[in-house]
Amino acid sequence: MSKANEVLNEIAQTVINMMNEHGSNWTKPWKDAVHVHGEPVSAKKRAYTGINRISLGLAVALSGHTSPVFATYKQWKSLGANVKKGSKGYKVIFYKTIIVKDEETEKDRALPCAKVYTVFNSDQVENWNGSWLDTEIEEYEQQWNDIEDVDKFIASIGANITLDNSNAAFYRPSTDSIHMPNKAQFNDAQGYYGTLFHELVHWTGHETRENRKMGTRFGSDRYAFEELVAELGGAMLSGLTKVEATPREDHAIYLNNWIQCLRDNPKAIQKAASLAEKASQFIINSASAEPTKQAA
Predict the structure, then answer these.
(1) Where are any strands of DSSP class E within the chain?
(2) Which residues contact 25 (CB under 8 A, 6 or more apart)?
(3) What is the rounded CA–CA span in Å between residue 61 and residue 37?
(4) 132 or 182, which is more confident?
(5) What is the rounded CA–CA span in Å between residue 185 and residue 30?
(6) Dmax (CA) of the chain
C-alpha cells in the first residue's frame, strides 16, 4: 500500500470512529448570500435544518425557483394557497423519537423514527402572499486567507467550478459542473476547501470517470450512500492536502445524518470508504500539481 493510500485509510477510519462519538445536528460551513430568509424555510416561517436544509437548498439552485419557501400540500391549503396541477414536490425527512422496551434488559430505549413528507415551493402555488420574504443580498468580506498551493492543485484537476452568490454547494451531473458559494461566504478555509473536495468527489462519479450510480431521489439508499462517499472523500483530501490536520466533528456529524438512511450501516460505511479512496486517487491522478506538497 502506498503512503497516500495509508493516509487516506487512516483519515477514513478516524471519521468512522468519530461517528460513534457525535450527534447529527450538522451546520453548514458557509453563510447564505440571501439575507434572513435565504435558506429554506417553511411557509409558516420555520427554518428547515440538517439534511432538509441541504436538499431544499439544492432544489432551489437546480430548479431555478425564485423563492426558498416550502410547505406541504396540506400546509399550503391551510394558508389559502393551491398547489398548481402537475407540480412535482420534494421529499423531506423528519425524525421523531419513539420509546421501545429492550427485550433483554426490559428497559425503555429511545429510537429515532424517520417520516417522509412531500413539500412544494411557493413558485408552485397560487394565491399566496409572500410579502414577508426578504430577498436582500448580504455582502460578506472574506475572513480567512486563501491557501494558494491548494488552489493550484484544484485548478489543475480540470473540473468546471463556478463560484457565485448562491446558498448551496452542489455538483450538477447534467452539465458536469460544480457550483459553490463565494469564498467570502465560508466561515474558514477548512469549510471552503472541505466543501469543494466533497463536490469534487461527486464529480468523479460521472459516467466518463468512475461511473458511480449516484442516485437522484433524496432520502433513497443510493443518494445517501453517495453522500457518504463524497464526505469521506472530502475528509481524505482535506487531510492529504493538509487543509485540515485531522478530520473535524462536522464530517462525522454530517455522515450520521445520512447513515440513518441506510439499512446496513457497517457494510455501507466500509464500502463507502473504499470508493472514497478510489475517488480521491482519481482526483490526485487528474491533477498536475502534487497534493503532498501543499501548505501545512
Answers:
(1) 41-42, 69-72, 82-83, 90-101, 108-121, 125-126, 160-164, 170-172, 177-181
(2) 49, 50, 253
(3) 15
(4) 182
(5) 5
(6) 63
Q: b or e along 244-271 (b: 16 or more beta carbons within 10 Å of the residue's beta carbon)?
A: beebbebbbbbbbbbbebbeeeeebbee
- Residue among 253, 256, 269, 260 at smallest CA distance from 28: 253
pLDDT at 116: 81
- Residue 215: per-residue pLDDT: 58
Backbone angles phi, psi at 105, to 5 degrees: -90, -15
pLDDT in tens, 39-79: 788 887 777 876 787 778 777 777 778 788 899 999 999 88
Residue with cell 451546520: 27
Contact between 121 and 151 (Cβ < 8 Å): no
**How do residues 183-233 score in pLDDT, each as one tens digit?**
988 888 988 998 899 999 999 999 999 999 875 554 566 777 888 888 888
Are 96 and 113 contacting, i.e. CB atoms less than 8 angstroms apart? Answer: yes
Query: In one letter, which amino acid is 240?
Result: L
**C-alpha cell of residue 134:** 426578504
Task: Report the run of H or E that residue 279 belongs to, with start and end.
Answer: helix 265-286
Threshold 0.70, pTM exceeds = no
In the prediction, which pLDDT does 101 show? Answer: 72
- Average model confidence (pLDDT) across the chain: 75
Measured N-to-C along each axis, helices 265-286 and 3-19 cross at an angle, to the nearest 10 degrees, of 140
* Contacts of 121 by beta carbon, 8 Å cutoff, 6+ apart: 59, 60, 63, 65, 67, 69, 70, 90
What SS3 state is found at 91?
A: strand
Residue 137 pairs with which residues in a beta bridge?
34
213-216: long-range contacts, CB 8 A cutoff, minimum separation 24: 214/173
